[in-house]
Amino acid sequence: xxxxxxxxxxxxxxxxxxxxxxxxxxxxxxxxxxxxxxxxxxxxxxxxxxxxxxxxxxxxxxxxxxxxxxxxxxxxxxxxxxxxxxxxxxxxxxxxxxxxxxxxxxxxxxxxxxxxxxxxxxxxxxxxxxxxxxxxxxxxxxxxxxxxxxxxxxxxxxxxxxxxxxxxxxxxxxxxxxxxxxxxxxxxxxxxxxxxxxxxxxxxxxxxxxxxxxxxxxxxxxxxxxxxxxxxxxxxxxxxxxxxxxxxxxxxxxxxxxxxxxxxxxxxxxxxxxxxxxxxxxxxxxxxxxxxxxxxxxxxxxxxxxxxxxxxxxxxxxxxxxxxxxxxxxxxxxxxxxxxxxxxxxxxxxxxxxxxxxxxxxxxxxxxxxxxxxxxxxxxxxxxxxxxxxxxx
Length: 393
Prior knowledge:
Layout: H1 5-43, H2 49-57, H3 64-68, H4 72-86, H5 88-91, H6 94-97, H7 125-133, H8 139-172, H9 178-193, H10 203-221, H11 225-237, H12 246-257, H13 264-288, H14 299-307, H15 309-319, H16 322-329, H17 335-355, H18 365-391
Helix pairs in contact: 1-8, 1-9, 4-8, 7-8, 8-9, 8-10, 9-18, 10-11, 10-12, 10-18, 11-13, 12-13, 12-17, 14-17, 16-18, 17-18
């Protein structure tokens, strides 16, 4: 087959447009990963991460139970810090990096007095030097501070990138259009960006979202489940105890889809996953030492969560009207989404509302990513296809 000059010109134009689109999409993804970080620094309590991280390393976490029992992300931060210090720092000094990114480049409007009666100055370099080194700021302490600040940003950026990648793959399981899946990523980015209240960098929350999306994908695809679930639960129990619902989603999905027949292989896999959870739960507490939780759940907290306007305002900023759209979508969406909604949503709200006053709306990111967004997007796509078909009749 031969091509005319006009055909060749058309092909070149298509290729150029394809590359241009890829560049635009990469830039968008880069922006979507950075936006929530900057918002967390500007209007959240991101700089308190220095104190929380140092206290964890000293085994003196503020909320010892459960913060001290969540070592996965702090250990990853230390690993990234080590790699950064022995690679990037050798090529580009932190003094040069600080000219581009440092706390002084942000207009920080958060009220840090809400956090252990500290002020913003306690989390700036001078306060950091005084609090953790007991002496005035010098060049070595300033460099340590700035390297941690950069590492915190790098780690959150990586977490966001992995969330978006997994969310895209997860959304595609229910959607025909990749562009609609990408729109879901846009909504998810704004949800993450609005989940800053009373929150430091909150790495374990975003790792939690990653684990639930990962679990959702493997539960639906049914590939090497026992391996994936074991790894997910091993990471989960060292990250945040809310991973406890993941094996339940797996066994409930299989039980309902197979018309309430017991699959003993699935039961065995679920038992293995919960064994990892239970063993990990007690080993971590044995290592760090068990302490009672400073906040004890009760029915009054549950009622206060239901009646507090501030709680609902913060929650709306993260999930918007997507829970209501999900209710409308429920009869028409994929069976897995129906099961995830019916099992996870009541338990998630019940546990969190009973345990503490949920001003930190970031805790709703798991329901948003795993349930609300894909259900809403699938309904939207169905309505869109139907309207197109009607227009062509």
